[in-house]
Amino acid sequence: MRAVIWTDVIQFTLYIAGTVAAFFLLLHRIPGGWPEVSQAAAAAGGKLRVFDFTFSLTRSYTFWSGLMGGTFLTMASHGTDQTMVQRLLAARNERDSKTALLASGLIVFVQFALFLVIGVMLFVYAQHSFLPAAGGDADRIFPEFIVRDMPLGLRGIVLASIFAVAMSNASGSLNSLASSSIIDLSPRLRDSGDERSLRRSRGMTLAWGLVLGLLGLIRWGPFS
């Protein structure tokens, strides 16, 4: 558990550093800087608008859809998801657990706001530099920007940050699956002694890794 948490801390620092670097590079490359970003975003339909209180059942992004959807999503992720719950249970006491839970909400808000702003900046940058979306997919603009317009050193940092996000999600999920398999689903394995439990936990982590890898191949490979 300690290894997973500290690995996540390092990976979080890495991908936030890559994101901040991309932010300042985009700000430097866009003619006119932030005033141009805000002006172009407003002209394109208010892309920097924070709240949309329109009550509509057909619009995807409104305050009300975010409030309702976010409530259920947060209850699932922070209330019942093993990946989050095991971290809260690993805190020294209940007070630290509550502090970690509240701090995670603030950190998630800041990082998502940063990612959304970078998305707007990429939209404006693409208009000035004719940055194409590979295959016509707008979600591929950022990888295209990394490969085509970033300096070599910074490109490596950002690519490393992307891998850090993937590794962080994988390590937490694998640890959670192994923990649930040993402690909740196989009580006999849990009571077999520390050394044997650790060895079986490692084997279960490997087994779940193979299962998830196979599912990934089915989803994105030749079977999709």
Task: Summarize this structure briefly.
With 224 residues, this protein is an all-alpha fold. It has nine helices and no strands.
Describe this entry's structure for a reader.
The chain has 224 residues and is mainly α. It has one domain. It contains nine helices and no strands. Helix 1 (2-29) runs antiparallel to helix 7, helix 2 crosses helix 5 and helix 7 (152-184) crosses helix 9 (194-220). It is globular, with a radius of gyration of 21 Å. It starts with a helix and ends with a helix.
SSE blueprint:
Layout: H1 2-29, H2 33-43, H3 63-79, H4 82-89, H5 94-129, H6 141-149, H7 152-184, H8 187-190, H9 194-220
Helix pairs in contact: 1-5, 1-7, 2-5, 7-9
Describe this protein with a few key phrases.
224 residues; mainly alpha; 9 helices
Number of DSSP strand runs: 0
The oligomeric status of these chains comes to single chain
Count of DSSP-assigned helices: 9
How many domains would you count in the coordinates?
1
User: Roughly how much helix do the residues carry, as a percent range?
Assistant: over 70%
Overall residue-averaged pLDDT value: 81
The shape, in one word, is globular
Q: What composes the largest sheet? A: none
Element order: H for helix, E for strand? HHHHHHHHH
Radius of gyration: 21 Å
